[in-house]
């Protein structure tokens, strides 16, 4: 009894944990700056095609300028914090889908006769594949996965954890060549040009190894969820009203689904036509200044990058509204407007959590600690004499460790590509293989760091569906992801080594070796 009481007293709320992390970041930045921690970073100048050598150092927040930065940037940073705006807008669409009954009916129709393990597998597979749209996928996959399990009479936290594992552990696996892959490949090409001269880019450089990895990883994450995590989770008590409530799919519900399907299909077809180049009046939503099609879709200033959240929200609103009209669950404009705000009820604590997370990320980025550490890892790669499998393992581990402090793929590869590519080429391995080793390595720890901007949505939704009197703290939320990370580590590293030994092509015309 005494031990239990002590544990209860020291349980920290996630908000308090983040506040402590902010304080530690400020203190550590001052100490590291005092000791002059710095690293040398070698990057390729895209204009002159020469190496730029720069020194990266830690910026102290224990200074007048540092403290001034915290106070002057906090509000503006919070307002511009992508997870906040993305989540709030997406929840408007999810709210009307949920309140109108569309989600309950659709999920029942899709999963009524399906095995639980199959539902989980499809959810994980979608979570991995949808990663090509970027980090915005966290904002709608996590809330929807919770509802998928809730309406399936299961613990919503299982859906949240499994989908987050798919989004993070599968972050580097894209059936569709993503804008991130394109940016990374451009850096790879620059570094390769310095060593080998002109080098051709290919959007299919990694397709073979990624197809195999996606299939196997989806299976692994599903098994961990269904055969291990189910028995480790706190028991979820389904409210009596939901137990007694039988979901009947009658004439009204089927009519609502038909209306939603027709309206949603029209919306999707119009969008698809607007992103297909070469047809009359088509391609109007593409960024024509880009070379690759995926960049035309998802480049920094493209329509879908700047408006993707609203595109998805409008789709959700259309589905919920037309279902409500057909099923007669929305009878007038008052009910429609009230339904739009349904998912925003009781979201106050989530907003506070996101606020402090935005402060943490802002101050950590200012300190430059992450970039300095990654720069030191780059120096290790530059000085190594490893070749073959030891070199693969080295870059894989460095990428994994780097992601804990710098989740951004582009930031890490900007620092590491200038040293990793030459080392791999000298070891007789292709630059594309170096990139896929880096990508596979960085995805291992993506779900284990609260410095990932969208991690806060994962944590907030775990807390939303938490029925225990104790809050879900950061340590517990990370602990849920550790089994996934460990098995993903073993799986992806094994795939890389086998691919290298056998000499299988990783993509169209691309082999592990030169």
Structure description:
There is one protein chain. By secondary structure, this protein is mainly alpha-helical. It has one domain. Helices cover about 70% and strands about 5% of the residues. It contains 22 helices and two strands. The protein has a two-stranded antiparallel sheet. A hairpin with a 4-residue loop joins strand 1 (about 40-45) and strand 2. The radius of gyration is 24 Å and the shape is globular. The termini are far apart.
Quick description:
The protein has 514 residues and is mainly alpha-helical.
Low-confidence stretches: 1-9
Strand order of the largest sheet: 1-2
Written as H for each helix and E for each strand, in order along the chain, the element string is HHEEHHHHHHHHHHHHHHHHHHHH
Number of helices: 22
Distance between the termini: 64 Å
The quaternary structure here is single chain
Q: Please state the average pLDDT score.
A: 89
Shape: globular
* Number of beta strands: 2
In total, how many domains does the architecture comprise?
Answer: 1
Biggest sheet character: 2 strands, antiparallel
Question: What is the SS-derived class?
Answer: mainly alpha
The percent range for helix content is 55-70%
% residues in beta strands? under 5%
Based on CA atoms alone, the radius of gyration comes out at 24 Å
């Amino acid at each position: 009894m005494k031990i239990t009481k002590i544990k209860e007293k020291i349980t920290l709320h996630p908000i308090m944990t983040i506040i402590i992390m902010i304080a530690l970041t400020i203190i550590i930045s001052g100490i590291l700056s005092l000791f002059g921690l710095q690293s040398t970073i070698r990057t390729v100048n895209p204009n002159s095609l020469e190496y730029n050598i720069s020194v990266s150092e830690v910026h102290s927040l224990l200074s007048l300028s540092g403290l001034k930065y915290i106070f002057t940037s906090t509000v503006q940073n919070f307002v511009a914090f992508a997870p906040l705006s993305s989540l709030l807008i997406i929840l408007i669409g999810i709210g009307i889908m949920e309140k109108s009954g569309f989600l309950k009916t659709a999920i029942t129709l899709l999963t009524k006769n399906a095995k639980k393990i199959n539902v989980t597998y499809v959810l994980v597979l979608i979570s991995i594949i949808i990663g090509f749209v970027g980090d915005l996928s966290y904002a709608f996959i996590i809330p929807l996965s919770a509802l998928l399990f809730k309406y399936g009479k299961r613990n919503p936290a299982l859906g949240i954890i499994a989908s987050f594992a798919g989004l993070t552990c599968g972050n580097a696996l894209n059936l569709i060549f993503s804008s991130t892959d394109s940016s990374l490949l451009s850096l790879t090409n620059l570094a390769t040009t310095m060593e080998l001269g002109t080098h051709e880019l290919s959007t299919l450089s990694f397709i073979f190894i990624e197809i195999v990895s996606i299939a196997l990883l989806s299976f692994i994450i599903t098994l961990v969820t269904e055969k291990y995590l189910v028995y480790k989770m706190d028991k979820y008590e389904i409210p009596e009203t939901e137990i007694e409530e039988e979901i009947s799919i009658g004439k009204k519900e089927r009519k609502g689904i038909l209306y939603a399907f027709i309206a949603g299909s029209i919306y999707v077809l119009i969008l698809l036509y607007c992103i297909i180049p070469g047809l009359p009046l088509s391609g109007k939503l593409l960024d024509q200044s880009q070379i690759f099609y995926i960049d035309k879709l998802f480049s920094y200033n493209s329509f879908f990058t700047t408006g993707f959240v609203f595109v998805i929200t409008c789709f959700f609103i259309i589905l919920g509204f037309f279902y409500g009209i057909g099923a007669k669950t929305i009878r007038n404009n008052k009910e429609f407007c009230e339904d739009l705000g349904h998912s925003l009820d009781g979201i106050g604590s989530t907003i506070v959590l996101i606020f402090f997370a935005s402060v943490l990320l802002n101050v950590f980025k200012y300190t430059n600690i992450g970039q300095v550490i990654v720069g030191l890892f780059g120096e290790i790669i530059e000085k190594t004499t490893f070749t073959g499998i030891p070199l693969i393992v080295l870059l894989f581990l460095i990428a994994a460790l780097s992601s804990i402090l710098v989740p951004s793929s582009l930031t890490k590869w900007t620092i590491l590509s200038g040293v990793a590519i030459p080392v791999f080429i000298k070891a007789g391995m292709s630059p594309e293989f170096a990139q896929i080793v880096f990508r596979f390595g960085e995805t291992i720890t993506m779900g284990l760091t609260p410095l990932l901007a969208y991690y806060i949505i994962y944590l907030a939704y775990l807390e939303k569906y938490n029925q225990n009197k104790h809050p879900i703290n950061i340590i517990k939320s990370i602990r849920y992801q550790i089994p996934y990370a460990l098995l993903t580590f073993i799986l992806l590293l094994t795939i890389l080594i086998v691919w290298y030994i056998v000499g299988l092509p990783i993509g169209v015309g691309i082999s592990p070796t030169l």
